[in-house]
Amino acid sequence: MTAQMPSGEPTPAAWDAVADGFDEFVTPVNSRHGAAALSRIDIGPGTRLLDVAAGSGALSIPAARRGADVTATDISPRMIERLRARASAAGVPNLQARVMDGMRLEYDDDTFDVAVSQHGVSTFVDLRGGLAELVRVTKPGGRVLVSAFGALSRAEFFGFLVGAVRAAIPGFVPPPADPPPLPFQLADVAVFRDRLVEAGLSGVTIDTTEWDTPYESATHFLAAVSSSHPIAATMVTQLAPSQRAQVTQVLDGMLRERSGGAPGAVLHAEVHIGAGTVPGWRS
Ligand SMILES: C[S@@+](CC[C@H](N)C(=O)[O-])C[C@H]1O[C@@H](n2cnc3c(N)ncnc32)[C@H](O)[C@@H]1O
User: Fold this and answer.
1) What is the CATH number of the domain that holds 81?
2) 272 lies in a domain?
3) Nearest atom (ligand 1) to Cα of 54
4) CA of 170 to the centre of ligand 1 (A)
5) How much distance in Å is there from the Cα of 79 to the middle of ligand 1?
6) Which atom of ligand 1 is nearest to the CA of 101?
């Protein structure tokens, strides 16, 4: 391993490569948080809801269960395949899924009552462009909901991964905190608020929730975290087998220390949930 942290916006192929693991390990946790996030907006039968960067359905399926007429979009064809399989297993016919770039939504202005994106648009390099698209396709008076990670220093999954790789591989260069990795670019609540207001939303609210994730073991942690984002996947796949074994051993010690001896532990992170209304007029 070259002891270097990858950076930049992942390609659709890179998301395709992690999609099966994401669906298995990450979506079940994100779905729990997604369902809770939806309580901030009023949705039900008759609501036309768009989910951008939907992954395998962590927000879309809970929204469909509440009766909304859901359109789920994602740039990764494999994520969309996994999402369709989940929707079919969940028995929600009121959900359609399409492969689509969130930067170029193929919908007219003012199409949806609600537009949502959980760890989606908030991770785009062109964050402003992604938010502008969400707002553009939402009707005046409609609602927009966006989730994003809070402080990098409070994202324990990230600290555990970087800490274990660093302990096992001398010379590993951790990612810079400034600017932070893309999933953390809205960690500052004031910046998050500014971006939502600049995008044209009114009545903006942002609240911060604890995002707990249970890991059963070091092996489970590595599988889950390396499926959660192509950046983490690249870090883990760069490891030689002996390095991976060392990282797993270090992680095992870290998780046991956290849980008082058990092989698994619950790790915490902060997530900000922003919501706003598209004004009845557009500038
Ligand atoms: C961290 S996942 C979040 C998935 C889901 N919203 C959730 O909460 O589990 C980020 C998702 O963004 C998608 N994505 C990345 N860039 C995108 C783009 N430009 N347009 C649409 N989707 C994109 C990826 O394929 C991936 O499914």
Assistant:
1) 3.40.50.150
2) yes
3) 6
4) 33
5) 8
6) 20
Closest Cα to residue 142, out of 101, 117, 106, 111?
111
Testing ligand 1's pocket by substitution, the residue of 33, 49, 74, 128 carrying the most ligand atoms inside 8 A of its CB is 74
Both tokens of 16, joined, read 């395709």
Distance 115 CA to ligand 1 centre (A): 14
CB 186 within 8 A of CB 272: yes
Distance 30 CA to ligand 1 centre (A): 12
Residue 282 has pLDDT above 60, yes or no: no
Look at the chain and report how many structural domains it folds into.
Answer: 1
To the question of pTM greater than 0.90 for the whole model, the response is yes
Quick one: tokens of 51? 């989910």
Q: For residue 234, what pLDDT band results from cuts at 50, 70 and 90?
A: confident
User: Where do the DSSP E strands lie in the chain?
Assistant: 48-52, 69-74, 95-99, 112-118, 138-149, 202-210, 213-215, 265-267, 270-277
Alpha carbon distances (Å) from 254 to 15, 152, 157:
28, 18, 11
For residue 2, tell me if it sits in a domain. no
Residues with CB under 6 A from ligand 1: 15, 27, 30, 34, 53-55, 58-59, 74-76, 79, 101-103, 118-120, 123-124, 229
CA of 2 to the centre of ligand 1 (A): 27
Nearest of 111, 28, 41, 125 to residue 73 by alpha carbon = 111
pLDDT digits (tens, 9 = 90+) for 12-22: 999 999 999 99
Asked whether residue 247 is domain-assigned, the answer is: yes
Summarised one tens digit per residue, pLDDT across range 179-222 is: 888 999 999 999 999 999 999 999 999 999 999 999 999 999 99
